[in-house]
Input
Amino acid sequence: MTHEERRKRREDIRRSAMSGKALSEISAEFGLDYDYVKKVCRGIKTRHETHPKAATSFEILADLLNTSQSLSEVARKFQVSRQRVHQIYKEACKAGIKVPQRNS
Output
């Protein structure tokens, strides 16, 4: 992709944001990463929304408590790193929550 094509794509993304589309809609439309679209649209008033990949620690902890999935499987499900799931696992154990031991 040339610099000119990238510039035009950024303009199209901004135009979509100004028309009232949510960032997640724009990222799906253009097939781009949500964070990239957010960066391109910086300074443009857009509909407030949470990051589409955002999973709360409670949702991840619930899966750790209620399933026998590995840390990697839980990470894939919530689209976060395995290290983040392991961090939540360690924090829960440290807080006295009995989380079943599992493989990475």
Summary: Residues 57-94 form one domain. The chain has two domains: 3-40, 57-94. Residues 75 and 84 are 8 Å apart (CA to CA). Helices lie at 3-18, 23-30, 34-40, 57-66, 71-78, 82-94.
